[in-house]
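Thread: "does anyone have the structure for this chain?"

Original post by V.I.:
We have the sequence but no experimental structure in hand. Need at least a predicted one for the grant figures.
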Amino acid sequence: MPLVALNLCLVYVGYRSGREQASQEALNVARGLALALEGELHGRTLALEVLAGSDALARGDLDAFRSQAEALVARQAPGANILLLRADGQQLMNTAAPRGAPLPSRIYMVNQQQVLRTGQPSTSDLFFGIVVHRPVIAIDVPVPTPEGAPTMVLALNPPLDAFDALIRRQQHDPTWIIAVADRVGTRVARIPDPDRFVGRPLTPDLMERWMSGAAEGLLDGVSPDGVHVLTAFVRLPEPYGWGVAVAVPKATLTRPALRTAVALFAAELALLALGLLLARRIALGVLHPITDLLRFAATPDGPTSPTVSPTLGLPEADRLAEALLAEARLRRAATASLVDSERRLRLVVAELNHRAKNALATVQSLALQTARTGGGEPRHFIRTFTARLQSLARAHDLLTAVGWEGAALDAVVRTGLAPWLGEGTDDGRSRFVVQTAPNSPMPQIPPGQVQALIMGLHELAVNAVKHGALSVPDGHVEVICRADPVGLSAAVDWREMDGPPVPGEPARRGFGTRLLERALARDLGPGARVVLMFEAGGLRATICFTPRSIVEAGSASYTSPPQG
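Reply from O.Q.:
Generated one for you, tokens below.
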């Protein structure tokens, strides 16, 4: 009885799993068909919109326009016909009728009125074509006019068998029933038996869900042939409004479940007999391997620890021995990693000590140079020295944010100029414009060069506030960051505009100028250069350097303190 109960449970679980899988597959097929259907309708709509913009139609040359329409039908929609209609439904052209033949008015006007009202393309429901004498659907697009409001509609009646071909290309299983239906649930295409069901409404249970407005769903139902099915449907949004229904016969799910039940029942009986025969032999072979496994597990870690798991003669014991050996390896690796982490920690502490000494040396140098240029005025010294310390602090904050791994060039420039970036002129312009050169990826700048560059930018900004463009209300500064990925170089261009006239190069170099021309070029590394141009329209400066490798720079100290 337990085996029978287990068999029934397995069959039921398999059936439920198969049902869920079939439901999901049917829904996925319906979604794929809906996308293909939308692409088919969209493609035909686009072709018709292109034709509606024909110069021949705009000139009123219907003969030339009919030739273009017939060429489009022959090339992209064999078996279709194209109509040109007035707003009242009178046909002006129909490629299904001979040239010059009298044409009737369109009777089905719902879709056409929708197009004329909204000025947007729309796909109709199934209706009877009075010229072709068969059920048709219409893709209507407005004919553009110079006045704006459309007065004519261009329509395409594709053959319904085109949608049968669409279903066949996407059909997942030949036993499944697939149908394409319009907004009101009338079948436009169906496989199998399209001749019997095209033009007829969906089944009542599906029609109820179809007309509820749901975008997609699953339901149990009965096909028109009386077959119990599991149905998945997907509706397209407007301007199409059509949808796809995929029905899976439930018999295709129950038959495999019954076969599985019989196969499982036979296998369980065979396994039960085999288990009874092997149980005694297996029990006799368990005791010795388990004893050896206990002895192996009790072996302490050390130089004499085994490196290969023993063969115990019992697969489970062998796997457990391998697991124990793997755990021992992990434990030894963790111990080695802990030792390595301690070594790294000592290196980090030593590096932090070295960086702290360099930072103190930088602060000492800043204080000394500021005192030299302050003229003995305490307030001037405090203000200038505090501003330089804050600039140094911003550099440290930026490097801390990036984990001392280096920062992008534009981020370094914005950090160095942060106290002035929010200022604006009287006419609303920003006093600082920081730009990056187009198609110029910003390089990563290592910590030492970051600090040097931020200190240099601080001195440029302070000089602009005191003597340059920022000393007058309308002055502003333009800063451009650029990089040469081929030459592995980076540059910052500084340009002051609309400030007081510059009389020329100063007779005496202050601390800021010396820091820029000497210390900054040295601290940015070999090949770096800082050019100051005292032009009459405003100071211009160019800072060029080669960013050092982040890995290489990681073992270097901070940039050396600025020298006078």
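V.I.: this helps a lot. The chain has a mean pLDDT of 79.
O.Q.: and The radius of gyration is 41 Å.
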